[in-house]
Amino acid sequence: MAEQNNGAVAANEQQAQFTIQKIYVKDISFEVPNAPQVFNEPGQPQLELNLNQKVGRVAESLFEVVLEVTVTCKLADKTIYLAEVQQAGLFQLAGFDERTLDMMLGTYCPNVLFPYVRQTVGDLVASGGFPPFYLQPINFEALYAEGLRRRAEQVQANQAPGAGNA
């Protein structure tokens, strides 16, 4: 009996398929609005990093995942540079249950895209004449878990007595 159950699990695992169809830069921008004066500005610049992810269904089992990274470097109130990259990928995911599919799109796909976006941002900053910028590793599993926690809190808040009665 145990062998039959193991066989059923193996059959289900074999049905799930993950394939990277294409990885590409969807959008890219680099600005140095106050050049060339900013190259002589004294002081310690401040970096701000914004990260966003979008998932879109292209076909029944084909998904586009876009990892958006924006790096803003400022000195006081002046923008030194602004780098924006949308690194995208087309991923074929078939045979996954909804929970696993959501997890794959929220963690595994961004992990695949991250090295590409890190390289692109670093190249942009260096090509702009600035010291190298190394995007630190990101724990997409932790970000995904935090997103699940927030969604659960929102659902609970909406279901609370009187939540919809204003």
Can you describe this structure?
Helices cover 39% and strands 36% of the residues. It is an alpha+beta fold and 166 residues long. The chain has a single domain (17-158), classed as Bacterial Protein-export protein SecB (Roll). It has a four-stranded antiparallel beta sheet with strand order 1-4-3-2. α2 (98-127) crosses α3. Mean pLDDT is 88; it is low at 6-10.
Please indicate the percent range of residues in DSSP E strands (runs of 2 or more).
35-45%
How many domains make up the 3D coordinates? 1
Termini gap:
57 Å
Which residues form runs of ≥5 with pLDDT under 50? 6-10
Describe the SSE topology.
Layout: H1 2-15, E1 17-31, E2 46-59, E3 62-75, E4 78-94, H2 98-127, H3 140-159
Antiparallel strand pairs: 1-4, 2-3, 3-4
Helix pairs in contact: 2-3
Features:
four-stranded antiparallel beta sheet, translocation, 39% helix, 166 residues, cytoplasm, Protein-export protein SecB, unfolded protein binding, 4 strands, alpha+beta, chaperone, single chain, Bacterial Protein-export protein SecB
Compact summary:
With 166 residues, the protein is α+β, with helices and mostly antiparallel strands. It contains three helices and four strands.
